[in-house]
Amino acid sequence: MNQKGYEIFKRSLYSFLVVFLLLCQTVFAADFSKVMILHTNDTHGFVMGDDKHIGMPIISQIKKEMEAKGYNVIMLDAGDIIQGNILAKYDKGQSCIKLMNSIGYDAAAIGNHEFDYGLDVLNERMREAKFPFISSNIIDNNTENTFVKPYTILEKEYGKIGIIGLTTPETKTSALPENVATLNFLEGKVLMASTQMYVSKMIAEKCDLIIALGHLGSKDSCMGSRSEDVIANVNGIDIFIDGHDHLVKNNIVGHALQVETGSFTEHLGCIVYEDGKWTEKMISLGEYTRADRNVEKLVNNASYNVDLHLSTIVGDAVNDMSGEFMPGLRNQEMAMGDFCSDAILWQSNQILGQDKKADGCIVNGGAIRTGFNAGKIKVKDIQSVFPFDNEMWVLTIKGSKLLEIIEASTQNTPSAMGGFPQVSGIEYTLNLTVPYQKGPQYPRSMYYAPSAPGSRVTINSVGGKAFDPDAEYRIVVNDFIKAGGDSYTGLTAKDAIISAENLGLLDSECLQKYITDRLHGKITPEYSKVQGRIKIIS
């Protein structure tokens, strides 16, 4: 070959390579036109379909039908999976994981309630899962590494998808503190820097789509660590699938789509790529009715085991008793809150006796997970109300400390607070026209001590007598409150608790005994309305 021919060959080869590379780019560029992202969050064990919940059998069938239509389905969950109702409690979330395996989930974030049974059980559930649990901001203090994988990458023929997990820093108080004592939950600016680092890594690994799978929520109490804060401060996130606050979201925040389905499979999230952008096409209850028979069989087997062991009838309710969270148990007095706190105080005093009886009882609203429907009350209904198996304690504390913890636990009212005090033997007034005056932030908490206890809350009486801040009171609480959970960190201060006695009772046992022994099996109409223990000035 002469020099001229060689030059022509080189030019031809160069042109061929350019065209070949362009063709390769065209062939292998991400194509999301037939991609569908189905997502759930805060299912809390509500896997059965009924008049309020879509349920996992229908969700599984939707996935199958979409795949039959040619969609490439990605299945994701934003956390709080294995705890929250009796079906999840019965086998500590094992049936929930089996269902997700059967449906074919691709990844799940760790929610705060994943820690409710302790780290050993959580690790067992994660080993059983055929999909990764991910979270980038939970640090194991012993190893200084992330507790689980921070992110996962799905390599598909249509593109490369990076998914990063995030868990609310509220977990350090919304979970039983002893269950997360060895873990650190990054928040604020450190959370932003960590998230940006991992998102940048996924971009460097040539991910075509970045999804944040976050159990963060949008609550004011989490300001600085909410999903909106992450979107605003981290570059590169295309979709943020949120959870934790049980809201329905479908927003464009900055350059990202922010979505959430509410809770308890009330909806199924459905994200598709249309007109060059990601769009939420949320599926609501009733839009689909066909169920996956195999998944339905798994649900029925789990339900059968619950019914087999927990179907004993313990009483009747004359009226419905609402267990709504908002507005409800987390921001105002509720008849169900009165009933539960009465039951615990009564049964505790049966154990303590007249000489050592307690003056009052506080139940955090977040501990009460549902109400009663009128009609027969079974053991499983009682355990659905109190699924966490909290142990009861009687604490001797000063009146000033009682005032502090009630004011601290209403600091965000009228917004939701899991710590909102439902009470028995205590009457207090909450003045919402007075702003909460923040003192120092409680250690390992998202909440602040009141700088001036009594400015927003007035305790009118305890044990039927006028309140005295210098008096000592015996107050029954669960082990979660005693350990400083939620907004009760004030009880962990040195000398905050003068004395403490474990009563050897579970909250669910108190409820059952109250119905059978005190009420003789009949919940009368008096509990269909509030008792007037909490006055709210708004």
Q: Secondary-structure blueprint of this entry?
A:
Elements: H1 3-28, E1 35-40, H2 56-68, E2 72-77, H3 86-90, H4 94-103, E3 107-109, H5 119-128, E4 133-134, E5 138-140, E6 151-156, E7 159-167, H6 171-174, E8 183-185, H7 188-204, E9 209-215, H8 227-233, E10 239-241, E11 248-253, E12 256-261, E13 267-274, E14 277-280, E15 283-284, H9 293-310, E16 313-317, H10 325-329, H11 335-352, E17 360-364, E18 375-378, H12 379-385, E19 391-398, H13 399-408, E20 421-424, E21 426-431, E22 438-441, E23 448-450, E24 457-462, E25 465-466, E26 472-478, H14 479-482, E27 499-506, H15 507-518, E28 522-523, E29 534-537
Helix pairs in contact: 2-4, 2-9, 4-9, 11-15
Largest sheet: 7 strands, mixed
Low-confidence stretches: 1-28
Which overall shape is indicated by the principal axes computed on the Cα atoms?
Answer: globular
Share of helical residues? 25-40%
Distance between the termini: 94 Å
- Estimated structural class: alpha/beta
Q: How is this structure best described in words?
A:
The protein is of the alpha/beta class and 538 residues long. 31% of the residues lie in helices and 26% in strands. The protein has 15 helices and 29 strands. Strands 1, 2, 3, 4, 13, 14 and 15 form a 7-stranded mixed β-sheet that branches. Strands 6-7-9-10-12-11 form a 6-stranded mixed β-sheet, with helices on one face. A hairpin with a 2-residue loop joins strand 6 and strand 7 (159-167). The longest helix has 26 residues, at 3-28. It is globular, with a radius of gyration of 26 Å.
